[in-house]
Design goal:
- Helix 1 packs across helix 9 and helix 4 packs antiparallel against helix 5.
- The chain is 86% helix and 0% strand.
- The protein has one domain: ABC transporter involved in vitamin B12 uptake, BtuC, CATH 1.10.3470.
- By secondary structure, it is mainly α.
- It is built from 11 helices and no strands.
Amino acid sequence: MDASGVALSVGMAAAAGLVGCFAVMRRMTLASDALSHVALPGIGIALALRVHPGLGALAALLAGAALIWGIERRTGISTETVVGVVFSLALAVGAMLATGEELVDALLGAPGTLGGWEVGLGLLGALAVTVFVLVERHRLVLSIVSADIARTSGVRVERLELAFLLAFALTVALGLRYLGVLLMGSLVIIPAATAKNVARDLGQMFAVAVAVATTSTLGGELLAARLHRPTGPLIIAVTAAAFFGSLLLRRR
């Protein structure tokens, strides 16, 4: 992999680690994995229109995040329930729109040569997510602890929740090329869960989650090149190994 590909991998993994910390704190563990499947209809439509599938995935994820936020806000139904309904619909529509081979590539990822514009947009997206999380981290924590206290402190909780869902959707879109729809949610959740086992405060949790996500991504890519195996599963295998290692540290 060239330098631009390495930079994009690191940026994507760092964004996933940071967003994952708040996804874990918001108890969106299962919802996070399901949300990535919302990209399927966008990929199918993009392929039918002969547009880059990454753009279709991004559009579908952002639209799905806005839809989930709108339904949750109007009905009061939990995020996990709304995501589950949208996920099921997206999976069905995506399966209808994509052929068998295209669907496998979308589900498991299809790494290849990245264009210059893909690298540029990917790095900008990773930077945007990273800046958002770091700038809004205190407001995000306060809204998790108590939405009412956050509102009385001047935090626009509903708008912040929408911004977080959009940042989450953008993070998922960044990693679809490497891990696909099935595995990208895992890269968001597992490093953050690993960090939660060993970190003593939010700063440590950020640092550990980013370190686990980036080293697992780079390590998985190196193993894939040496073993001639798919990249995504190896990245998640390395990440999961780090998680089980953190359980031992937690016991001590």
